[in-house]
Amino acid sequence: MKNFRNILILTLVLDLLQSIPLFMAMSGGEMKEMMIADMGVEGLAENTGAIAILDTMLFVFAFIMVGYLASTIYALTLKELSSLKTATFILGILHLAWTLPDFISLSTGSNAHPPIPLMIVSLLPIIGLFYVSKNGQLKTSA
Among the four residues 92, 109, 114, 137, which has the most C-beta atoms within 10 Å? Predict the structure, then answer.
């Protein structure tokens, strides 16, 4: 699969799916309570200052995710090979930077990481983006 469009669409779909918990946690309710419980910090749920910091963190992460989505959508509009290779390489770096802390947490034995199946899914766009940044081809109309 050397087609830029296929990899970018895969990246967009997986990013959308992985952003759902983030946006659900921002709206509060059960997802936010589950996130707080998973953090394992005693008394966090009762600390209004800590909850305010968590809300700010979720807000910032949501904007970062919207930026990823917008960048991927923009990359889908590119038509030149060099532009597509550059865009997919930069998107690959950004996705790697976003997921690397999870893998570091896993390798150090910390529980502060998402479920392993989700971490594996998060690798798919990274691998695909780096692959097409080196080997991608423009789809030729025949």
Answer: 92
Q: How many CB atoms lie within 10 A of CB 121?
A: 14
Q: Give which of 15, 132, 20 is closest to 72, Cα–Cα.
A: 15
Q: Measured between alpha carbons, how far is 14 from 100 in angstroms, rounded to an integer?
A: 17
Paired strand residues for 3: 137
DSSP string, 86-119: HHHHHHHHHHHHHHHHHHHHHHTT-S-S--HHHH
Determine phi and psi for 84, rounding to 5 degrees.
-65, -40
CA 60 to chain centroid? 13
List, for residues 36-95, the tens digit of each pLDDT value: 887 777 888 888 898 899 899 999 999 999 999 999 999 999 999 999 999 999 999 999
- What the block records as the tokens of 24 is 């659900």
Of 10-19, 34-43, 95-104, 115-124, which range is least confident?
A: 34-43
Q: Note the pLDDT of residue 140.
A: 64
Q: Give the three-class secondary structure for 27.
A: coil
